[in-house]
Structures are given as structure tokens and as C-alpha cells.
Amino acid sequence: MPVQPRTPQGVLELLPVQQIAFQRMLDTIRRNFELFGFLPVETPAFELTEVLLTKTGGETEKQVYFVQSTGSLKQGDTPELALRFDLAVPLARYVAQHEHQLNFLFRRYQIQRVYRGERAQKGRFREFYQCDIDVVGKDELPLSYDAEVPAVIYGIFSQLAFGPFTIFINNRKLLRGLLESLGVAQEKHADVLHEVDRLGKQDRTQIEERVAALMDAGPAKQLLDLLTANRGDSRAALAELEAFRADPARPSTANFKEGLDELERVYTSTLALGVPESALQVNLAIARGLDYYTGTVYETFLTDHPKLGSICSGGRYADLASHYTKSKLPGVGISIGATRLFSQLLELNLIATGARSITQVVVLNVEAPLAQEYLKIAASLRAAGINTEVYGAADKLGKQMKYADRSGAPIAILLGTRERDAGMIKLKIFRENREIDVPAAELVARVRELFG
Amino acid sequence: MPVQPRTPQGVLELLPVQQIAFQRMLDTIRRNFELFGFLPVETPAFELTEVLLTKTGGETEKQVYFVQSTGSLKQGDTPELALRFDLAVPLARYVAQHEHQLNFLFRRYQIQRVYRGERAQKGRFREFYQCDIDVVGKDELPLSYDAEVPAVIYGIFSQLAFGPFTIFINNRKLLRGLLESLGVAQEKHADVLHEVDRLGKQDRTQIEERVAALMDAGPAKQLLDLLTANRGDSRAALAELEAFRADPARPSTANFKEGLDELERVYTSTLALGVPESALQVNLAIARGLDYYTGTVYETFLTDHPKLGSICSGGRYADLASHYTKSKLPGVGISIGATRLFSQLLELNLIATGARSITQVVVLNVEAPLAQEYLKIAASLRAAGINTEVYGAADKLGKQMKYADRSGAPIAILLGTRERDAGMIKLKIFRENREIDVPAAELVARVRELFG
Q: How far apart are CA A144 and CA A180, in angstroms?
């Protein structure tokens, strides 16, 4: 009795037409990463457990998948290996390990799958692609790189053409400074910022109640008003912060001043890099959950699909690899969760699958004795860079035509003895449902023309 | 105390310059797969253990890596998941699972990593890339596809330019038929073919002794002579087999006749597909270890580096997925072990790392107040598809130059107030160690010219 063929829960396995669309998405992401001079890095799927799990009890570490071979399984050993759960920890390990062979500032991109033992539920993946870029400095990292990151995001999502989108930027130093100015105790900052991060995503009244419990009600309202008042108007938001900074009644702290300076400079420089104002917004309510981030933070939303949440997030951090090296390595980066994004867009019917196949021409097997001719035609098309398949079976022409049409190739080639003797080749153009005869010597040029 | 950053044994982690070369290799392989109309498939790194381990006790299954999350680890469960150890089993599972949604003949390529719990030793990888193509038919698969496979191999290794190479082809049906004609008992065929596969790799005398132990000494010598006599001369080898077939003194079996027909047709059709005779050889001593293969078999050797062994192997099989479906799915395919091949070529200094970086231009930070200008220059180059990086730190120009040179980018751009006021931009061309001034308006065109 055969075993039922099936995949584990929580993975995204695609049919070829979908996989073609997914590859195009990854190729576009990679192309843009390279356009900005990021270098490719790949790390092993598994790391030494001891190296991977350096933090103490984070949420993600509870979801780690351990790896062990048959031998060690029998001995009941503690697993020596574990699958990476993100690309940030492997990057830290990589930079620390190869520190003396890398050219700093180190700019890398990494497009690989990561693994998490998530509870099985819709939209949660146990295996998914992340597409990361980071710029890592030694001791220091100029602010100009914080502006480059949204320019990369802009290039990618413009080309992917999933509809209008907005890159939101903010600065955690500024947020902390604001809390300082409002007299919020240091130890409550993380909790307040956690609530701030919910603005625009959850009910405002409830957020305000919870923030008021962490500080006084007056400043709580003032804070949330300030963070949300100028939503959609970056210049007004920056101007109001300027006014806040200039107001002698409130002492604005060093964090506030620095944070505001940074935010203004990142905003201006990002525009200088060609990102239009319509796609870039200062949004003071973006805080990012992770305390890891210490300056600029980013989130990206599809305008027509806000429920997808942020499709590309990141920020600046003070030190990448303190677990692995004494060198101070500040960095800035972003991550695109490609698998989750693709599966959501697929459900929304926003991915055009089958619109364009990889195969461009199918040479049909019209008369078996001409088989060698078909192979030669295919070879000449391939030599011209045209993706070509030869139908090998001696099936009825109707079946062959159906196969070629279903395969998504725009053109089929038919050559019978009659055409051959006349020095012609017949092209079937599926989209126009028409056939044309072209001189054999002109085949490659004519096919190229048809592809524009 | 920091944890020592390091990778597990048996993985290949590359520095960026090496990774660039490796990516180029994978890109070339993928490009050629697509040129022949193969469609992309990716499968999850882990499969359900029950689905993956269907065979009984194969060598590879002993090396399987099991995967389990923290939760199930504590409960001591039998692991539900395991990492794939090749791409053939996942292909079988994929085709059986999605059988009714696929367009047959199904042609797929798959370029992913696989995992084996190998003993730690030089040249043995626990994680490595395989690059596979297969054509899978339903019920039947025409022989013409057996000729397409070496044409793909030829395209790939011509473009990779690792030096001259030879694709060896043979036919297991022919070998079995030959053994039948020589009166070797059916149950000894596998053992004899295992010895045959060692011809050219191990000492002939010892092989002959072991074969003689499996059959009579006379036929043993006759067999080995026949299989090795015309090495390097495909036509002579085929002619001698023809003579063998025509000899009324020896009854040649159906297997022998069919196998010889197939081999002749595959050889001729492969030449028709544009593979030159110099790169294709009938080699009767190629048997492939696996009984999985039932017809055409392939191995590929670099002429100047025979010790690397076969760098690309495969063959035809009678039924892909009998474990998962009752449908009969014959196929033909090959696999390139890209990680092993790359690491060997790297050791032989045959990989030109750093010869060409991904980054083409580095815009230097000559005067900090011109920072916005630098960003705009970069944006204009990127819009023209030129991979461009902006140096962001206010370091001394010497340090910046050194960084740009080390990064492998062929060009650096220098713009000071003087150049700006004159409407000019200075280009440093590292390879020629020379600087030229170009009008700002012509920058993109001039940089393009330099890349030829």
C-alpha cells in the first residue's frame, strides 16, 4: 500500500506556475539588493546549538527546531545542531567569525529560508524565506546608510508592482527622548513603546487607558496626540516636533534632540535618493516591538491592503554581535518575509500566475521522421537565448497543442514535410490564435520579434 | 565571555567574493535548465519522516537528520520530521501529491540544499547543493528525452568554462543483455555491474579476478575486453556491439537488442542537438551503482581533473514514485553536486574569485557637504542598472580609495566642489590606475562605455 504523499503542516509548497511567480519576486529583490552594492552571503541552515542559542529564553528561541542524526538520536544526546530561526543571529555569527577577512563597512544581503516550530495555524509558517540586507560598521556607522535602506525598499516594491505602498520611518531615540521630556520613568519606556506600536492597529481608547496606567493621564493623552496628530503629513509632524524642541517650558533631552536631528536627516536624504514623498512618511507611532533597535526604524504597508501588516521592517541597532566578539558593530537593516507576503498576495489574487511561462517555444512532433529537424530547430533557438522545449512523444497533434497551450509557452512550432520542402516553418501564436509561415532562415529573428 | 563564533563541521560557508563566484555558477546552471524549458520546483527542507523514509534500510537513510521542536524533544517523541537527503525522493513525493495539477510530460528543475549525517572528513559535506533536472512521463517517456539531458549538461559546462570535459553515456539494458548473452545468472547481474562500474577507476586485474569469481573466467575477460576496448571511440564501440549482435554464434537477447538500439539513437540525437563528438563518448564501462537506473546512464568528467570523479551523473528510471502512487511514472534526469564541485575547484584554484565584483561603482565621500550630490549620482547610475554603492563615512580619502579598490568595484567616482562647479565628475579606473574627468551630463553613458 503506497504511503500518502503529503507535506508537513506550515510549509508553502508551490505548483510550477506559482513557483515561477515566486522566483520572479525573489529575483527582483535580489536584483535591487545588488543594485545598491550589497554582497551575497549564505549560511548553513543549521548552526551549533551552543552558538545559535545565546540569548536567555526569548520567544523565538522556544520555537527552535533541533537537528540530530540517527546515531545521536539513539544515544539520547542533547542535540548539537539547531535550524536557524532568523537571518540576524547567523549574520552576527558570520561577521564575528570572519571579521578579519571582511571589508568594512560590510554590506551583505541574504535570501534564505528560516525555521520556526510555530503552532499550526493559518498564516503561520514553520519554514519561510527571509530576504535581509544589513550594513554593518566597525565602531561607527554613518547616518547616511539609514537613508539608503528605504531607497532599496522603494526600488523593490515599485518593481514588484503590488500597488501603492508607504514606507514609514521613525526614530526610537526620539521616542525615548519624548518619554524623558514627559517625565516617564526609564523602566517604563519599553512598555509604553510597546503600546505606541499598537497605534493605528488597535483601538485608540484602550491604548490610551493602558498608557495612562504607565504614566499620568495628561501626558499620556499629550503623547498619543503628538504621535498621531500629523499622520500622513511628514513635514507637519517634523515641524510640530521642532516646536516641541524649541518650547522652553519643556526641557527636551539629548535623546530627543539627537533623535529628531536623525529623523530629519534620514527623511531628507531618502528623498534625495529619489524616493518620492508619496511613498515615504514620518510616522511617529512606529516603534517596532524589539528593544534591539536603537535609532531609525522602518515599516512598509501596502496602501490597499493594510491588514497584511508591515511587509518589510527593520531598523538601526547599536551592536550586532556582542555575544560573539568584543568589537562594537553597529548596523542598520531590513527584512522582507517573502513567503508570508507571497502567500497572502496569492490568496488576494494579486499574483499573476501563468501570465508568462519560463518556456517560450514548444517545438511539436508533427512527423516522427523529422525528429532530428526538431532538435536542430530547438538548438538554434536556444543558441539565441530563447527558452525552448521539444515535444518528444508521438502523440496526436491535438494533444500536443493542448500541452503546449497549457504549458503557457506563447508559441508552438510546427514543421511537416510540406513546410520543410518549401523551406518554411509554421508558428502558432496562442494569444492571437493564429498561425503564420516564416522562412526557415528567418526563424530566430521572427520569434524574437514576436517577443518584442 | 563571548561564545566562539563557528560553523558546524561539514558545511561550506563562503566569503562574499567566493559566494559571488558560487552564485554565478548556480545562475549559469539555472539559466541553462530554463533554456531547455524546465520549470522550477522547490520543496520544504524537511519532510514527514513517515513519507521520507519509505525504503528499507538504504545507506543514505542511515544518514538522515531528524528535526524536532523544543516541545517534542522534552516529550521524547519519535521525530515527526526529517531533512531531505536528496532531491529525488522529494520529487517523487511532489509528483505523486500534485499529479492531477501537473502538465505531463512534467519537466522540473530543482536547485536546493540537501542534508546528510556524514562522518566528518575532508570532502564530505553534511549540507550541500544539488541541482537536478528530470523529465517525468505518465506511463511512457519517449527516448528523445534521453538525448536532451546530455545537451543540457553540455550547455552548462561549456559556459562554466572549467576546461574540457566529456559526457559519457551508456545503457544498463544493453549491459544486462550482454550479461544474458554471456550466460551470467540474473541474480549476479547487480554484482557484476558493480564491478564494471569500477573500470577505469580501479585496477583492472583485480576487477577481472572478482568478475571471474561471479562468472566463468573466459566470458569475464571477454566482457571486460568488450567494455573497454574502444574507449574514446564511440563509433568503433557501437560497431563492435553491432558485430556482436549480428554474430549468429551468440544469441543476443531482447535486452541487448533494445539497449543497443537505444544507445545508438541517444548518441545520434545528442549530436543532432549540437553536442560535439569531442564532448560525448559512448563508454560501456559506465554502469552507475544504483539499480534504480534501467536504461541510459550518464557520467561527466573534467578531462584535466579525472580525480574529481563524475561531476554530473544520472540516468533513466522505470518508475519514479511507486511508494506514493499506483501511476507508472518513468523518468530521466541528472544531478550536479554543486557544493562539492565548487569546493574542489576552489582548492584547485580554478575559481576566479574577486575577478568581478557585484558592485560596479563606489561613489566616494570627498566633501561631506556634497553628500546629497553623491546620493543623486548613485540614484542616476542605479536607474541605468549600474550596481552602485555610496561611501557614507567621513573617512580620509586614502582609506575610502582602499575600501573601493578592495571591494573589487572597477570604478570610483570623486566629486569635489571644484569638479561640481565645472560641471564635471572625476572617475578613477582602478584596473588602469588612471583618472578621467567627464561632463556630469554624460556620466551614465561614459560609465556604461567603460563596462563595454
A: 26
Q: State yes or no: cis peptide before B105, omega within 30 of 0.
A: yes
One-letter identity of residue B49: T
A282 with A163: CB under 8 angstroms? Answer: no
Residue with cell 508592482: A161
Q: Using CB atoms within 10 A of its CB, is residue A358 exposed (0-12), middle (13-18) or buried (19+)?
A: buried
DSSP B248: T
Spell out the per-residue pLDDT of chain B, length 452, in tens.
Answer: 579 999 999 999 999 999 999 999 999 999 999 999 999 999 999 999 999 997 655 666 678 999 998 766 666 667 899 999 999 999 999 999 999 999 999 999 999 999 998 787 887 899 999 999 999 999 999 999 999 999 999 999 999 999 999 999 999 999 999 999 888 888 888 889 888 888 877 888 999 999 998 888 888 888 898 898 888 899 999 999 999 888 888 777 899 999 999 999 999 999 988 899 999 999 999 988 667 899 999 999 999 999 899 999 999 999 999 999 999 999 999 999 999 999 999 999 888 776 567 899 999 999 999 988 999 999 999 999 999 999 988 899 999 999 998 888 999 999 999 999 999 999 999 989 999 999 999 999 999 998 86
- pLDDT band, residue A354 (cuts 50/70/90): low
CA distance B330 to A106: 49
B445 CA to centre of own chain? 38
CA distance to partner chain A, nearest, from residue B426 (Å):
20
Dump the DSSP string for B305-352: -GGG--SSEEEEES-S-TTT-SS---EEEEEE-HHHHHHHHHHTT-S-
pTM (global) more than 0.90: yes
Chain B residues in contact with A40 by the CB 8 A cut-off are: 16, 19-20, 23, 358
Q: What is the pLDDT of residue A218?
A: 83
Q: Who has greater pLDDT, A319 or A291?
A: A319
Question: Sign of the CA dihedral B174, B179, B181, B185?
Answer: negative
The chain-wide mean pLDDT, for chain A, equals 91
Which residues fall within 8 angstroms of residue A280, CB to CB, at 6 or more apart? Answer: A150, A154, A166, A167, A169, A234, A267, A270, A271
What is the nearest CA distance from A291 to chain B, expressed in angstroms?
A: 21
Q: Which residues of A touch B50 (CB under 8 A)?
A: 3
Q: How near does any CA of chain B get to the CA of A354, in Å?
A: 12
User: Hunting for cell 574502444 — which residue is that?
Assistant: B230
For chain B, list the domains and their CATH numbers: 8-163+305-356 (3.30.930.10), 164-303 (3.30.930.10), 361-450 (3.40.50.800)
User: In B, which residues are within 8 Å of A375 by CB distance?
Assistant: 144, 147, 269, 272-273
Burial grade of B392 (CB within 10 A; 0-12, 13-18, 19 or more): buried
ipTM greater than 0.85: yes
From CA A189, how far away is CA A182, in angstroms rounded?
A: 11
The order of strands in the sheet holding B39-40 is: B39-40, B106-115, B127-136, B331-336, B313-317, B293-302, B165-171, B280-282
Sheet holding A424-429: strands in order across?
A388-390, A361-363, A411-414, A424-429, A434-439
Q: What angle do CA A91, A93, A98 make, to 5 degrees?
A: 95
CB contact under 8 A, A98 and B379: no
Phi, psi of B102 (to 5 degrees): -95, 155
Give the Cβ contact number of residue B156 at 10 Å.
Answer: 23
Q: Which of B43, B143, B356, B382 to mutate to test the interface with A (most CBs of A within 10 A)?
A: B382
